Amino acid sequence: NAGVTQTPKFQVLKTGQSMTLQCAQDMNHEYMSWYRQDPGMGLRLIHYSVGAGITDQGEVPNGYNVSRSTTEDFPLRLLSAAPSQTSVYFCASSQGRVGSYNSPLHFGNGTRLTVT
Amino acid sequence: QQQVKQSPQSLIVQKGGISIINCAYENTAFDYFPWYQQFPGKGPALLIAIRPDVSEKKEGRFTISFNKSAKQFSLHIMDSQPGDSATYFCAASDYKLSFGAGTTVTVRA
After folding, report:
1. Going by C-beta distance under 8 Å and a sequence separation of 6 or more, which residues neighbour residue A48?
2. pLDDT in tens, B15-50
3. Pairing outcome for strands A42-51 and B4-7
4. Residue B18 belongs to a domain with what CATH number?
5. A&B contacts, CB < 8 Å
6. How far apart are CA A6 and CA A17, in angstroms?
7. Which residues on chain A are in Cβ contact (under 8 Å) with B45?
8. pLDDT single digits (tens) A55-96
9. The domain containing residue B74 runs over which residues?
10. Which residues from chain B sit within 8 angstroms of residue A48, using beta carbons?
11. d(Cα A36, Cα B70) in Å, to the nearest integer?
């Protein structure tokens, strides 16, 4: 099993450009989410989805869009990149209710994004 | 603001020593408290987790201590090894996981 796969691993954008970070999981998990990791800030939730066709905002959603057309894929779109979006982005999935005792969150290996 | 406060930001321990990381929370609706371990260039991975009806959980050299009345929990790494050098995140969940800021642990041989 590949688990959670994120592409690309690295990306450099200029301010104002748009791009899509890809995330795919092969574990048939219902829950998927995007986090950003910044020094001293831990992992902050951007958007999440509890199933195909259902998405909701996390704590830092501004500047990002998501959609969930299939169970497997959960892309994250940056509409107009800003230097404040320089970060490491992680996609994660879990089988049931996120963070429940029997349903741990599985993370991908991240995308390191730099916006100049 | 962060719902889970984690300290220290970093620590250095000698091989064989004990590493202790502390976390505190305010939201009494949290009902699941995992710890995640992250190596450089990798995503976090679940290390150990506890429910609030248990005061301690041990898995190998890793122990979570949980104090419900104080709303605090901690991770103890016994007999620390160089391979334990990583960043550790505490987290808490009601229906979403909230993470602490992370602690970078360096184990010196």
Report:
1. A31, A32, A33, A34, A55, A56, A58, A98, B96
2. 999 999 999 999 999 999 999 999 999 999 999 999
3. unpaired
4. 2.60.40.10
5. 61
6. 20
7. 107
8. 999 999 999 999 999 999 999 999 999 999 999 999 999 997
9. 4-102
10. 96
11. 29
